[in-house]
Design brief:
single chain; S-adenosyl-L-methionine; TrmL; RNA binding; 152 residues; tRNA methyltransferase activity; alpha/beta
């Protein structure tokens, strides 16, 4: 049973391309929640994903509700800068889903309200930061989960 990365309304094709490459390299399932801010045939998406994108079969979902209907029992962790629990404090398990919002706004309040006890943050140091880049955050979160479940 693989881990899942769920991208809700991603806007920047290069980030999604990089995350696709990450998913192929870690045997992780990628879910794309529409609407997307780009077309999946986008040059920049495929350039960032290189030939990895050809080996990826991302699942497309028309909406968050459609995704939840398709995977009602998937354990989800919502990544947000406002989360109280660090990503290293989650007891990750095979089959967990790591959910990330759009680059400019994060996850929508309705989604965050749906799972209030499943908010996760990646700590940051310094005084000037809003959030990590989406592809960086996905890699940090995913590799911590893989480390814990020893999926090597």
């Amino acid at each position: 049973m693989a881990l899942h990365i769920i991208l809700v309304h991603p806007e920047i094709p290069q980030n999604t391309g990089s995350i696709g490459r990450l998913c192929v390299s870690t045997d992780t399932r990628l879910h794309l929640i529409h609407p997307l801010g780009f077309d999946t045939s986008d040059y920049y998406l495929r350039r960032a994903g290189l030939d990895y994108w050809e080996r990826l079969a991302p699942e497309h979902h028309a909406s968050w509700e459609a995704f939840r209907a398709a995977y009602p029992n998937l354990p989800l962790w919502l990544f947000t800068t406002k989360g109280e629990r660090r990503h290293t404090d989650v007891a990750w398990r095979e089959g967990d889903g790591l959910v990330f919002g759009r680059e400019t706004q994060g996850l929508e309040p309705e989604i965050l309200a749906e799972l209030p006890d499943r908010h996760v943050r990646i700590p940051m140091r310094g005084t000037f930061h809003r959030s990590l880049n989406l592809a960086q955050a996905a890699a940090v979160g995913l590799y911590e989960a893989l480390r814990q479940i020893e999926a090597w």
